[in-house]
Amino acid sequence: MQEAIEVLPRLGFSVVTAKTKSGSLGKIVQMAKDFLWRANNGSFDLTHTYAEFVRDVNALNDSFGDPPRDPVHMNPAPPIIDHVAQAVVVETNSENVRAQKEELMLMSMQELKEQCKERCEKMSGSRADLVDRLLQPRKPEILITRARRNQYVPKVPSSNAAILVALLLHQEHDKFLSKEEVMNFAEETCISKEPMHGNGKSFYNGWSGIKDLTIPSEGRPALVNIRKRKGYALATEPYGESGVDVARAIHIVAHRQGICRCGQAIDIS
Hints:
Elements: H1 2-7, H2 21-40, H3 50-59, H4 83-105, H5 109-118, H6 127-135, H7 141-148, H8 159-170, H9 179-189, H10 211-214, E1 224-227, E2 231-234, H11 243-256
Antiparallel strand pairs: 1-2
C-alpha cells in the first residue's frame, strides 16, 4: 500500500488518504460533489483520453503553469448561488430594509445592544455590526428561548447543526439511523463548516461534538436519543421543545443563510 502511495503520483495520479473507512467515504463524497458541480457548469472539456491529456500538458510552456484565477476552476469549487433569485429578493425588500436601517442608525448603542440581547444576538462590535444583525430575520423563537435558558443551541454552520438536519430529513417513524448514515446524510446537507469526516490532519471530525446533542441541557431532555444496537433519532418530546422542533428551526436558519443543499422548498419566513 505504501509503495502504491509513493509511486502513483509519479505516474500522474492523485492519491487521497484517510485514517478510517468513513473518512475515505467522506472524501469520495466531496470529490463527487465537486466533479458534479464542474460538470453542470461546463467547466469540463472531456475531449481527451488520459494519454492525450498528459501529452498536451507536457507540451505546454511555463506561462500555463499559474494557478487558476477564475473561481469556476478553483478547488474546492465554490457553491452554486442563484444570483437571479437573490437579486429579486434584494430588489423587492430594498426600500423596507433602507427605512429600517435608517431608523436603527438613529438609536443609541445601548438601545441597539438591548435589541440584540432580546434576540440573543451578539452585542459586540460597531454600530454598523449591531445594525446589520438586527436587519437579519429574527431567529426562530425556539432557538431564542433555549439560549435564554442557557440550553445548548447548535450554531449554523456547524457539524451538530448538520447532524440535526440530517436526522430531520431522513428519520422515519420509530426508525433509528446508524452513525455512518447520520454522518453521510449530514455531509450531504453542506451545513457543516468542516467536512464531517475530518480533513485528514487531525482526529477531529463532525462526530466529536455529538455529546452536546445526546445529553440533557439545563434540566431539559436531550435533542437526540440513543438506542444500543439501533442508533440515533431525534427526540419527539416534549412537544414544541423537542429535538425535532429544534432541528426544524436549525433547518430554517440554514436555508436563510443559503447553505443547506437538501433541495427542499421550506418556509423560511
